[in-house]
Amino acid sequence: TAIAITEQPVSISVPVGYSFTLQCRAKGRTLLQYQWFCQHQSDCHQILGATNPDLPIVAEQTKLYTCRVNDLYRNAVFSDWVKVEVHQCVARGLPPRLWRGEPVIILNPTEQRVEVGKPLLLQCAAMGVPAPCYQWYQNGNLLEQHKRKKLWITHAKVSDSGTYLCCASNSHGEHWTNAVDVHVESETLAPAERLQLCHLVFVSATGKIALLVGNNCYQHHPNLMAPVKDVFELSRLLEQLGFQVVSLLD
């Protein structure tokens, strides 16, 4: 309770050579002293001369940082550990000259074909200051449990087939990856999987079915953001009206 950190440093994701300042602020009952530490792989060490609340850095390698704050009574607290993630970017992945830290996608997921029961992995990456948060979608539906750069499914099911994309966002805005198709296939389906597949494809003559197609990507126009949200909201509305909904992207 003698020392309270009032401003924590933040993680960033930047191209190599990017200049940035990590900041830590604290308050206490006496004069406070600061000391920054750095960890790269398994090596953690004190940064010589880094004794100010601000730590200017030039991004060269991905490293972790923390700041120790102590007072004259030998009380000490550490800030959160933060990651400075450094990307060796290709030219088309570099941020624009007037980049202010909004997310920039540098790795898009790729189309996947996997067998039922096999692992499924989709990956994306984005730069941003602060480091972006991630949210994956399947057929326009938010995947609540998948909030990392990597979407990992240990045992793929037929219902995991569909169109996937990810949204990278931070306090400056959001950016979407390309939409990609995932095909989960099997020559011999288990009875439960066969029933599930039939339910998705066939409906009774008296049933109501809605097919929603959101066009997100255009050859001669920037990618749109609204179709993903529109398909998701319209799907919920139609389901409430008794429709069986099949939603697709592009």
From TrEMBL:
The keyword Disulfide bond applies. InterPro entries: Caspase-like_dom_sf, Caspase-related_regulators, Ig-like_dom, Ig-like_dom_sf, Ig-like_fold, Ig_sub, Ig_sub2, Pept_C14_caspase. Keywords: Disulfide bond, Immunoglobulin domain. One of its GO terms (molecular function) is cysteine-type endopeptidase activity. Residues 206-250 form the Caspase family p20 domain. This is MALT1 protein. The keyword Disulfide bond applies. Residues 3-79, 103-190 form the Ig-like domain. Pfam families: Ig_3, Peptidase_C14. One of its GO terms (biological process) is proteolysis.
